[in-house]
Design a protein that fits this description.
metal-binding; 18 helices; Peptidase_M48_N; zinc; transmembrane helix; four-stranded mixed beta sheet; 4% strand; mainly alpha; Zincin-like
């Protein structure tokens, strides 16, 4: 970081650290601004569910009954989303105005005393994270249970039992204790140790945690929630293996995951973020149930397009640049006593973990703006992956005479109908919320890619 930039940040820090800035009123205004904007965007999409016919691009592929089911499902999800957003907005306002974070910091200290743990900043930060998680857990459980056992069940998607639902959250809470708390303590330690150079070391820590997570997630964490079994010998395995071999994709394992144990929605993905390292493809059992081997092959051709263009690595790089930029800006807030005092904290020391939490409140609108940019980028990547699949010749052994264009379009339409996905999209809502293009947009782009081949 250059000296002029450093001097500029120090000047900004001095200007911001003043009781003249009404931090709490400012945060309230920012929370209201984002909430009003998001509610307006959701209302624009809600109007789409009053339409009585599918968009022209889907009219020949979707029955009137399936369209009505999709509209009802979308309407129910949007109503629930708007209610849950309003509830969470009220919770945020109450937390801000009654200094909930400061109270939870104190409760974290009580927890450490009960556990007979020395109250270092690292330990207090980890305890604060756990106390916060537990305090918000009841509301989270109510909202998620309603979504699963009312909204999803009403439309035939929920497959989980109350026992599975409960155990999932118990396991998540235990993971917060076993993994989350030590990571919080480690983050605080790195920032305190690095001093003015904490931005570089924090980004390196995030990178190390990401790589570590990519190793332990499929081996230790995912098996806690789902069962992965090798795809059996047969046509599907043969077609996927032939596709991977033709592209020199370093496929190590091909798995099927029991997604139907919780939902009848379908999906497929690959993991393995280390460039040049082995990769694993995972297919949901619901995808296998509702698609032909050739259609799944086309879906995976799209996924391998992401790999061929290094999209995961590029997205990681963009994320780290974003993290570095935000942390650099955080240097102007990390010692801001007036900000801490406005929310019930008086130092020294001023807890780093709390500083990050307060900083995120101040930067809340910026997160909303960044969402537009990140989604625009990922949508372009989706178009590129579709075009990659369309232009790809099928490996030897395909005897149905169909191209990836035909198979990908067929598969996307099937998934749209099976998942009762929304068919009409408001442009602003889609730009803000969707990381993928809408189906009509994808079908049109696939047609264009096929013509320019």
């Amino acid at each position: 970081m250059g000296p002029l930039w450093t001097v500029g940040l120090q000047a900004l820090q001095t200007r911001l650290d003043t009781p003249a800035i009404p931090w709490k009123a400012l945060v309230n205004a920012l929370l209201w601004g984002v909430y009003v904007f998001e509610t307006y965007v959701s209302w624009r999409q809600y109007r789409m569910y009053s339409r009585t016919a599918p968009p022209p691009a889907l009219a020949g592929h979707v029955s009137a009954d399936d369209f009505r089911k999709s509209q009802r499902y979308g309407r129910d999800k949007m109503r629930f989303s708007m209610v849950s957003d309003a509830v969470m907005h009220v919770v945020s306002l109450v937390s801000v105005n009654y200094n909930a974070s400061a109270h939870m910091w104190g409760w974290g200290g009580e927890l450490l005393r009960w556990l007979r743990v020395a109250p270092s900043e690292q330990a207090l930060s980890a305890a604060h994270m756990l106390v916060t998680t537990v305090c918000y857990l009841p509301l989270k459980l109510v909202l998620e249970a309603y979504r699963a056992f009312v909204i999803e069940a009403r439309h035939g998607f929920n497959k989980q039992t109350w026992g599975t639902f409960g155990m999932d959250h118990v396991k998540q809470l235990l993971l917060s204790v076993v993994l989350g708390a030590p990571l919080v303590a480690l983050l605080v330690s790195v920032i305190r140790w690095a001093g003015d150079a904490f931005v570089v070391y924090t980004v390196l820590l995030v990178l190390a945690v990401t790589l570590f997570g990519s190793v332990i997630f499929p081996t230790f964490i995912q098996p806690l929630f789902n069962t992965l079994t090798p795809v059996p010998e047969g046509r599907l395995r043969d077609r996927v293996t032939a596709l991977a071999t033709s592209l020199r994709f370093p496929l190590k394992h091909l798995y099927v995951i029991d997604g139907s144990k919780r939902s009848s929605h379908s999906n497929a993905y690959f993991y393995g973020v280390v460039p040049g390292g082995s990769k694993h493809i995972v297919l949901y059992d619901t995808l296998i149930e509702h698609s032909t081997p050739a259609e799944i092959e086309a879906v995976l051709a799209h996924e391998l397009g992401h790999w061929s263009y290094s999209h995961p690595v590029k997205m990681m790089a963009v994320s780290y640049v974003q993290i570095a930029a935000l942390l650099t800006l955080f240097t102007a807030f990390i010692h801001n006593a007036s900000l801490y005092e406005a929310f019930g904290f008086r130092g020294p020391p001023l807890p780093v973990w709390i500083g990050l939490e307060l900083f995120s409140l101040v930067l809340h609108p910026l997160d909303a703006l960044l969402q537009f940019g990140m989604h625009a980028m990922t949508r372009q990547m989706e178009y590129a992956a579709d075009a990659f699949a369309v232009r790809l010749p099928r490996p030897q052994g395909a005897d149905d005479g169909k191209t990836y264009q035909e198979l990908l379009q067929s598969s996307l339409i099937k998934l749209q109908v099976h998942n009762l996905s929304t068919m009409h999209h408001d442009a602003l809502f889609s730009a803000y919320h969707h990381s993928h293009p809408t189906l009509p947009e994808r079908l049109a782009a696939i047609e264009r890619a096929a013509k320019t081949d």
